[in-house]
């Protein structure tokens, strides 16, 4: 079977380079590059991407090059009651650059005035500060460091012209990601001893947009690739599977609908304040993921869809969404309920195998950001603790009970499996020590719960000050330890 190539699809159309993209992973290829393709298909953008490999160990660019920078996006799911299962060859990436072997090619991009837009997804870790010393001719390791040097090259080539700046759209899932990236670039430029006039140009000639992205992209379908090849009649080493739903919110001081006509191409893009959309996504979609993963995993389930269809969990998830999350979100009821309905539909997508174990990555850190604010709002507004959100906190704590360690690796355990715990070192070290307080007595359990809830450094506040929370957590944890999760839920906990 032949490999995907331009010769195979008989396509010679090459669009001029207009976008620099830091990152070439599944999400960007199934989201931003797919959107650019949609605009190109309608003759609305007529531009292509130069993709820059974000890490030295990247393996995507060589595969893209072998396929003439083509790949397939397959969108599968249920939308407005109809099943979607469609594929499209994406040709919006023109070329790629490995900055660790060809840094000069990256800097040469500064010479092209048509390159005006920068998109990135280097994961949340990519938008963190890393002090570096810049050595001319060698790529900085961090994304903000690379961007600072690229911007400095642009600044020097165009003599500081305000018209030479970029529109920069970070797609990392970090709150106020545009502002964060700008501050990191400014810090890197200071570390690299670039002049103060350049930092002023960064702030005045370039626009860093806060964004929110939303689409589940599961990536390469290892388990079903043979059936996809049979269906497509070609090999694609970068075939990317995602859901039909997509949302892109862009907030900034400039409005670019005429230059980046996403909406005209029929895409779900909003040039608006990010916070209302972020609250919806984080509290509902991400929040429910964090609520359900530990419950489902402790029950022996593997995927979000299984959790949504489990007779014990489905009523809890439904109650949590409609009785605990939605009532305390300060938005119009219709907007909240419409989004909630779309989330439920996405969770039961028969094509997505969204693994609960993957959602457990940094689960307690996620609980702090995604669920705790809703729990606190509920207590403030209803003057009582929310049953399911408290139970989710308890199952998170039980999921992260350290049963043994091998070197730096720590492990938890269910009746069926042993699994590696993935959280910050501070969380895991604390939980390992704290669980050792428990000696099977109720007194030790109460002391352990108080120690966990009272850790202000990890939670950002002392949760022991929340009325009724200690008693509720102790109650649920006692039941889970004595009876196990299945019996606890069968006993009509709520």
UniProtKB/TrEMBL annotation:
<dbReference type="InterPro" id="IPR013118">
    <property type="entry name" value="Mannitol_DH_C"/>
</dbReference>
<dbReference type="Pfam" id="PF01232">
    <property type="entry name" value="Mannitol_dh"/>
</dbReference>
<feature type="domain" description="Mannitol dehydrogenase N-terminal">
    <location>
        <begin position="18"/>
        <end position="260"/>
    </location>
</feature>
<protein>
    <submittedName>
        <fullName>Altronate oxidoreductase</fullName>
    </submittedName>
</protein>
<dbReference type="GO" id="GO:0008926">
    <property type="term" value="F:mannitol-1-phosphate 5-dehydrogenase activity"/>
</dbReference>
<feature type="domain" description="Mannitol dehydrogenase C-terminal">
    <location>
        <begin position="274"/>
        <end position="480"/>
    </location>
</feature>
<dbReference type="GO" id="GO:0019592">
    <property type="term" value="P:mannitol catabolic process"/>
</dbReference>
<dbReference type="Pfam" id="PF08125">
    <property type="entry name" value="Mannitol_dh_C"/>
</dbReference>
<dbReference type="GO" id="GO:0005829">
    <property type="term" value="C:cytosol"/>
</dbReference>
<dbReference type="InterPro" id="IPR013131">
    <property type="entry name" value="Mannitol_DH_N"/>
</dbReference>
<keyword id="KW-0560">Oxidoreductase</keyword>
<dbReference type="InterPro" id="IPR013328">
    <property type="entry name" value="6PGD_dom2"/>
</dbReference>
<dbReference type="InterPro" id="IPR008927">
    <property type="entry name" value="6-PGluconate_DH-like_C_sf"/>
</dbReference>
<keyword id="KW-0520">NAD</keyword>
<dbReference type="InterPro" id="IPR036291">
    <property type="entry name" value="NAD(P)-bd_dom_sf"/>
</dbReference>
